[in-house]
Amino acid sequence: MKAGFYNDARFFRVIDGFMVQFGISGNPDVSAAWSNANIPDDPVRESNARGTVTFATAGPNTRTTQVFINFNNNAGLNGQGFAPFGKIISGMDVVDSLYKGYGEGAPRGNGPNQALIKAQGNAYLVTQFPKLDYIQKATIE
Questions:
Q1: Does any domain span residue 96?
Q2: What is the per-residue pLDDT across 92-111, written as a single tens digit (0 to 9) for each?
Q3: Which one of 18, 28, 44, 74 is most buried, counting C-beta atoms within 10 A?
Q4: Residue 101 is assigned to a structural domain of this protein
Q5: Is residue 135 part of a domain?
Q6: Does the pTM of the predicted model rise above 0.70?
Q7: By C-alpha distance, which of 42, 93, 51 is closest to 74?
Q8: What is the pLDDT of residues 5-45, one digit of tens each?
């Protein structure tokens, strides 16, 4: 976040009643630099309850910059190794209001294709998915 990684990053996968995912930089060069920066898994110590923030993963020790916020209690994710690391303590109403119209990402749904986000960044998202909400600026406090 010190380098502005999440600035202008879109909430690209918003599945109503499940979760909202983000964490691919809008700048393809930045995404490429971080694509293989895997973070080792943490043990699951908390449940994927409403408002918890959790790393997305494609299997053991594949966490990178992508995270999601749970809209509901998704305890079923606990046994799959999804370990929450944070919790929204205020502003969950803002999370609930994020645009959900595109749904699941391509190819399973009508939402953005993650490979194209990584390759083209916000140029792809702004033209093909203009209603996506985004992070204006993220800071560490």
A1: yes
A2: 999 999 999 999 999 999 99
A3: 74
A4: yes
A5: no
A6: yes
A7: 51
A8: 899 999 999 999 999 999 999 999 999 988 888 999 999 99
CATH number at residue 86: 2.40.100.10
What strand order describes the sheet that includes 52-55?
Answer: 13-15, 19-22, 67-70, 52-55, 84-87
> What stretches of the chain adopt beta strand conformation (E)?
13-15, 19-22, 52-55, 67-70, 84-87
Residue 59 DSSP code:
S
Give tens-digit pLDDT for 48-65: 999 999 999 988 999 999
Q: 115 phi and psi, to 5 degrees?
A: -65, -40
What is the extent of the structural domain holding 37?
A: 13-128
Domain assignment present for residue 81? The answer is yes
Tokens of 43: 């043990």
Distance between CA atoms of 37 and 110, rounded to whole angstroms?
Answer: 28
Q: How many separate domains does the chain show?
A: 1
